[in-house]
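## Example pair
The file below holds two records. Each record gives the amino-acid sequence first, followed by its structure token line.
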Amino acid sequence: MQIQTERLVLRPFILSDANFILDLLNEPSFIQNIGDRGVRTLSDAEKYLENGTISSYAKNGFGLLAVTLNETGEAIGMCGLIKREALEDVDIGYAFLPKFWSKGYAFESAQAVMKQAKENFRLRRVVAIVDPANEGSIRVLEKLGMSFEKMVKLSKDDIDLKLFSISL
């Protein structure tokens, strides 16, 4: 399930990535743009990985992957495919530490994940959900060739999200 690009390695998360997850999920930008996952301790981060990301590998054959720099192995973000009960299609998701924004990493990793979605998982359609105020993420989705389709809510208490889609 590992993917290599020119500058990045995308690999499955392991429990020892809990420190990175704790940092990423508590970034103000993550909470604002994606949501508060309630991960406040190392133990919470391990449970987040175990019950979400790592269990998705076994259940779906895919999930969010750790995005690391090719040269150093430093974790800089996450990117991957997610199967949410609230959505009919598999969606692509990504998040990066702010110091790694505006360097093309989100596009590079998402493009590699889309290729894997088509070639390895034979998906015919992938969607993405995004907060309408998250202009940077919307630009990445449009650069991937995705088009705005409609507004959706993942739950009745959730905000309206933009749903983008692409046929593979």
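Second record, same layout:
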Amino acid sequence: MEDRIDRIKKQLHSASYKLTPQRESTVRVLLEHEEDHLSAEDVYLLVKEKSPEIGLATVYRTLELLTELKIVDKINFGDGVSRYDLRQEGAKHFHHHLVCIECGAVDEIQDDLLEDVEAIVERDWNFKIKDHRLTFHGICHRCQDPENPDEENNENT
């Protein structure tokens, strides 16, 4: 984790920003919960556990700065809540998501499934693509398989 924080610190410095203690607390929460697709409020509550002096506005400003610098991606899965996702280091594009309409689970696809589509769009529409996002909405494997329910469904039986 420390290596990743050092690299984020360098990204901030190259854009003339500092990794303040407040920003570092926010980055650490994002790193510790990288798979969770946290909202700003979720990040704030987790930051507050470690650094009670940090306010919600500071967390919002930090998340917006990290988004501008493409350290994190701001995403919305159609539920009206913005969530923040650390961008994979060295990734050319944002990764894709599978959103379950039954349980709300969000799974990630790291493979870039749109390389061919991008080439067609750039060629046929003379449009220079900088990034793309793809979200599939459906029913996850956990909800499809009644023979193998997950732990949450077992708690009530």
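Notes on the second record: The mean pLDDT is 85. The longest strand covers residues 72-76.
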